[in-house]
Every structure is written in structure tokens, then in C-alpha cells.
Q: What sequence folds into this?
């Protein structure tokens, strides 16, 4: 709906409300991911047909909020607006404050640290962690808000659904091995938002506990196998580069960003984070498995934001140069060999890179690990195999070689020693 049509629609409805004495109109603008959509589901559960819900990309939120505030000017007391899982810019901050001062009702609920400054306003509710240190999500915050204001009542099925959303959005589901949270997100992206809403609302209204039905379980099993195949293919396309003091992995992908970023991060713990390029949507997603890295800071440098372990930004011209143009000529990162029986990490292990250089890691004495490059001893030493592997992977972009190459390397080294002795 364009601005002119939207404005006309809102004004007509506002005039009808004033003339006919209808109850206050409720609107909700939310993000278009699982957390944002679940806020919409809770709003429809609480307000039924009285609420109008719109799911928006991060880039569309400020335009939509500005249009709304312009459209309802003069009718502020007839409207309530909830903004969930997204934030607003400085210009809209001032407009919202003016709207509230004129009697309008707006409540912004978010959990991203980049929005914490909005807590200075009465209409701002931004909480990253609760009082006991548990990470929040917009759905959990909105749920508690609705309960505290007597708009809905707590019950097991709602508690369970909200917790699954929170677990997925904060990525705590993996620590707690709550795979149902990931499967809930998978289910959203396997169907339209409208179908997902309808299904969840029916479940939240009529069920005592939250579960998937048999058909959904079968679909989710198939989706899981599809995801595994996709990640396997993308592992071969990962590129490693340094940006500032960070060592990043870069991959181009249009699907399964969270799962892909997590899998690639686990495969390559020497990388500080994974940057996922989506050329179709012109977006970059950042993921990390490390507690000492905050990818929202990286995204923030390019006008984006998000969580400490999951964030994103638009692919600006500057970001294009850094994440696509400069790394374009880099060869994909060498994967670790799988199913080895001889060349195993933690012992005498051989690594190789795309330039066919070989790096042998071995222990001379307890707590002293040495490194050879193509049979020449290098000066770098480490106190553990893990530290040495971290160093050579960040420095030389290597992967664990296959068993046969370790045997060839050691045999070649032995032959060299014999030749040197004879000469």
C-alpha cells in the first residue's frame, strides 16, 4: 500500500471512529522473522479482530511509522500503536514523543542493545537481559507486557510457545539442546506467514500444551536433511580474510543463515565470525559462536545492528568493497580431512593450504609444540596443539591433510635426512 492510499485509509477509519464512537484502533508493526511474527500472533490472540498487524523489514520500519504518524495527526487519542522487535530513528523518536504528548498511545518493545537509548521515554521498553541474566526476545517481553496489563492470561501453551521463540532468537536453544525451537523457526519459513499465524493461533487458543502434529514432524525431518545438504555445499565455498583485527569467514548464501553461520563457526573456531552475503536482498548477516566477539558492533559500522552473536546490515557501497570486492580473488578455505585414522589432531598432524604448502605440527617436549613449513622449522612455538592450530589456520588458511599425505610428508622428510647424512 503506497503512502497516499495508506494515509487515506487511516483518515477514513479515524473519521469513522470519531463519528460512530468505536473503540480505539490498535496497530502493531513488527519484524518479519520468528520473533517479530510471534509478537503479531500474541497481538491477534489478545486483541482479536481489533488489531491490524504489519510485518516489516528493518529498512521499512521508519517509513511506515512516519506515514502512520502523519496519517493520524489530529486523531491521536483514537489510536494505539505497538512497535515490536524493531527500533526507530531519531526523527521518529521526536514524532512519537509528540504523538504521545497529544494523547496517543505508543509502546515500543525491543531487546536489541542498539535500542537501549529509547528507555529514556515512557513509551520505550528495551531489555536485553532480565533481572536474573536470561536473554530476552521481543516476544517474551511483549507477552509479559500483555499479562501485566491484564490483556491476556498466562497459560502453559503460551508459556511454552514464547519460550521456544526466545530460545531460538537468542540461540540458547543449542546450549539447552531444545531442537523444537529451531524446528519452530523452520516451520515458519516452510509456509506463508498467514498460514503460520492461523496454525499457531488455533494451537494457542485450543491446546493445553504446545506440540507439532505428525505431518509437521515429517515435513521438518525433510527440511532438516535439506539444510544439512545445503550447509555441506557451502562449506566448500567459505573464504577467509582479515578485516581490521578480525579474522572472518565469508560465504554467499540466500538460505539458512542462522544454521549456516553456526555450522561454519563450529567447523572453524579460529574464525572470529562468519559474514553471510545475500546478493538478492543486498544484505549481510553476521554470526559468531564466541562470547568475546560482538557482531552487532561490526554490523553497526555499516548502519546495521542486532545481537552480540547474530546481527546484520544492508550491503552498502562501502560494505561491498570490504566484503565482496576485496575478497573476490581469495581461494576458498581448505576443509579439514574427515575420517582420518593416522593424521589426527592433537598428535603429529599435517595441514595444507590451497597453494599446496604443508605444515607439520608436532610436540618436542611437554608444553612445547613446533611448526614446520615444507620441512623447514619455523620460529613460532605454542604451549598446546589447540593454540598452534588456531595460529596456523588464521595465518596460513590451512586444513587438516588426508592420511596418505602425512605418510608421504614423513617419508620425504626421512629420505631428506638420509641424503643429508650421506653427503
A:
Amino acid at each position: 500500500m503506497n503512502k497516499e492510499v495508506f494515509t487515506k485509509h487511516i483518515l477514513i477509519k479515524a473519521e469513522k471512529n470519531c463519528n460512530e464512537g468505536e473503540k480505539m484502533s490498535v496497530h502493531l508493526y513488527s519484524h518479519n522473522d520468528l520473533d517479530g511474527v510471534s509478537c503479531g500472533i500474541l497481538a491477534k490472540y489478545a486483541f482479536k479482530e481489533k488489531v491490524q498487524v504489519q510485518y516489516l523489514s528493518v529498512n521499512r520500519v521508519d517509513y511506515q511509522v512516519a506515514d502512520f504518524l502523519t496519517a493520524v495527526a489530529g486523531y491521536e487519542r483514537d489510536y494505539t500503536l505497538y512497535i515490536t522487535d524493531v527500533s526507530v530513528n531519531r526523527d521518529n523518536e521526536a514524532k512519537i514523543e509528540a504523538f504521545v504528548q497529544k494523547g496517543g498511545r505508543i509502546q515500543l518493545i525491543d531487546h536489541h542493545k542498539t535500542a537501549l537509548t529509547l528507555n529514556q521515554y515512557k513509551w520505550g521498553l528495551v531489555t536485553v537481559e532480565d533481572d536474573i541474566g536470561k536473554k530476552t526476545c521481543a516476544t517474551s517481553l511483549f507477552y509479559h507486557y500483555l499479562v501485566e496489563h491484564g490483556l491476556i492470561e498466562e497459560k502453559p501453551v503460551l508459556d511454552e510457545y514464547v519460550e521456544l521463540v526466545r530460545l531460538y532468537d537468542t540461540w540458547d536453544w543449542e546450549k539447552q539442546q531444545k531442537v523444537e525451537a529451531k524446528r519452530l523457526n523452520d516451520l515458519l519459513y516452510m509456509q506463508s506467514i498467514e498460514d503460520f499465524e492461523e496454525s499457531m493461533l488455533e494451537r494457542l487458543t485450543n491446546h493445553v500444551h504446545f506440540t507439532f502434529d505428525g505431518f509437521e514432524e515429517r515435513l521438518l525431518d525433510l527440511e532438516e536433511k535439506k539444510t544439512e545438504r545445503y550447509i555441506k555445499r557451502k562449506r566448500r565455498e567459505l573464504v577467509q580474510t582479515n578485516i581490521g583485527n578480525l579474522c572472518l569467514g565469508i560465504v554467499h548464501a540466500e538460505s539458512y543463515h542462522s544454521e549456516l553461520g553456526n555450522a561454519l563457526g563450529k567447523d572453524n573456531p579460529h574464525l572470529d565470525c562468519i559474514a553471510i552475503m545475500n546478493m538478492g536482498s543486498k544484505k549481510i548477516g553476521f554470526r559468531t559462536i564466541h562470547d568475546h566477539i560482538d557482531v552487532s558492533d561490526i554490523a553497526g559500522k555499516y548502519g546495521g545492528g542486532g545481537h552480540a552473536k547474530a546481527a546484520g546490515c544492508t550491503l552498502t557501497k562501502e560494505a561491498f568493497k570490504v566484503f565482496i570486492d576485496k575478497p573476490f580473488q581469495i581461494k576458498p578455505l581448505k576443509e579439514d580431512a574427515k575420517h582420518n585414522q593416522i593424521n589426527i589432531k592433537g598428535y603429529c598432524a599435517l595441514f595444507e593450504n590451497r597453494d599446496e604448502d604443508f605444515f607439520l605440527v608436532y610436540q618436542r617436549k611437554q608444553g612445547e609444540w613446533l611448526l614446520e613449513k615444507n620441512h623447514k622449522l619455523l620460529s613460532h612455538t605454542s604451549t598446546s596443539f589447540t593454540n598452534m592450530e588456531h595460529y596456523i589456520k588464521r595465518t596460513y588458511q590451512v586444513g587438516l591433510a588426508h592420511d596418505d599425505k602425512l605418510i608421504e610428508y614423513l617419508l620425504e622428510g626421512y629420505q631428506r635426512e638420509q641424503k643429508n647424512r650421506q653427503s
In short: The longest helix spans residues 214-235.
